[in-house]
Amino acid sequence: MEVILREEVEKLGRRGDVVKVAAGYARNYLLPKKLAVTANESNKKIVEQEKQAHLRRDAKEVSEAQELGKLMGSVSVTIAQKAGENDQLFGSVTAGDVAAALEKLGYTIDRRKVHLDEPIKQLGEHKVTVRLHRDVTLEIPVHVVRED
Questions:
Q1: Are the CB atoms for 98 and 116 separated by under 8 Å?
Q2: Torsion of CA 117, 120, 124, 128, to 10 degrees
């Protein structure tokens, strides 16, 4: 079954792409969640107009993300955690903790945009990737120190 994507679907395609998917996947997932519409001429015209509006909006978001990236280029985050011997943390530092620390510095970043391969469990300096936009990412140094 051919459908036109209305949103970006991971491992399938971007907004406005005409893709061929299994009928059940389209009927049970893509269409009810309004992620796609069936591929016919009238829908193609409507989605093309939406795609143009989205491209303009996306260009604006990219420029805003680049500006924010420039501002955040010199930011470093310090997080105090309780730790035992051998610099092992009793808990761990998660993406939510990093996002909360950034918010204290005045940068409102969603925790889902902070990417950690795994939670930080050691004291020291770590690099954390923040994905501001699909095309704009930056690395922020995170210093995990012992809490008094």
A1: yes
A2: 40
pLDDT at 135: 82
- C-alpha 35, offset from chain centre: 18
Per-residue pLDDT averaged across 18-22, rounded? 92
What pLDDT does residue 31 have? 92
| DSSP designation for 9 | B
Contacts (Cβ under 8 Å, ≥6 apart) of 145: 78, 79, 80, 81, 123
pTM comes to: 0.65
**What's the whole-number mean pLDDT along residues 3-10?**
87
Tell me the sheet residues that pair with 143.
78, 125
Amino acid at 143: H
Q: What are phi and psi of 20, to 5 degrees?
A: -100, 120
